[in-house]
Specification:
Distance between the termini: 59 Å
CATH topology of the domain at 62-173: Alpha-Beta Plaits
Strand content: 5-15%
Radius of gyration: 27 Å
Strand order of the largest sheet: 2-3-5
Shape: elongated
Order of helices and strands: HHEHEEHEEHH
Helix content: 25-40%
Largest sheet: 3 strands, antiparallel
Structural class: alpha+beta
Number of strands: 5
CATH class of the domain at 62-173: Alpha Beta
């Protein structure tokens, strides 16, 4: 059934005055925005001279934690690699040389370029072996440098412990990640 002429409403373009045709209102509005920004307080940080204040639950570079005896805490259960939505964690398990666990990671690699820093690996880990630290200035000149193996992840642990910048999750309550403070 065709549409009747009474149901059709024709829209005409608005008429522009002389000032609008010369773009004067747009120019004045743009200059007003520029002047407003000139007198507002500046929020730019001069990185790296000024280091940003990060929230306590910031998620940066990963680390593998050590146990009380200095060994890797990971038991190679594959929970972190299973939970990872980016599929950036690769683990190769081997029989453990220690009597208190069955397996340990012979190879543990995280592709930091592929990672989306969601924290799912940290939440899935049953033994708190993997954590995201507050380190954010991560650089590498090649893809291979951004593949963090077990030794590099353990060195991040040593570095953060020595600097006293442990993630807040290691110092929080019994529930680990679940007891993070709300921001």
């Amino acid at each position: 059934m065709p549409i009747s002429d009474s149901d059709v409403r024709w829209v005409k373009p608005p008429k522009m005055g002389l000032a609008e045709r010369l773009y004067l209102p747009a120019i004045v509005e743009g200059l007003g925005t520029t002047i407003k920004h000139m007198f507002q307080p500046k929020v730019t940080q001069q990185f790296p001279e000024e280091r940003p204040q990060l929230p306590p639950n910031y998620r940066g570079v990963h680390r593998l934690n050590r146990d009380e005896q200095g060994r890797v805490k990971c038991v190679a259960c594959y929970m972190c690699s299973t939970a990872c939505p980016a599929r950036c964690i690769d683990i190769v398990a081997a029989p453990s040389p220690w009597p208190d666990r069955e397996k340990y990671p012979e190879l543990f690699v995280i592709d930091e370029l592929r990672c989306i820093y969601c924290g799912m690996c940290e939440q899935a880990c049953p033994c708190d072996a993997i954590e995201l630290t507050s380190l954010f200035d991560l650089t590498g000149l090649s893809r291979e440098e951004m593949m963090f193996d077990k030794e590099k992840l353990l060195s991040v642990f040593d570095q953060t412990v020595a600097a006293g910048t442990d993630p807040i999750r290691t110092r929080s309550g019994k529930l680990s990640v679940a007891s993070e403070p709300a921001v």
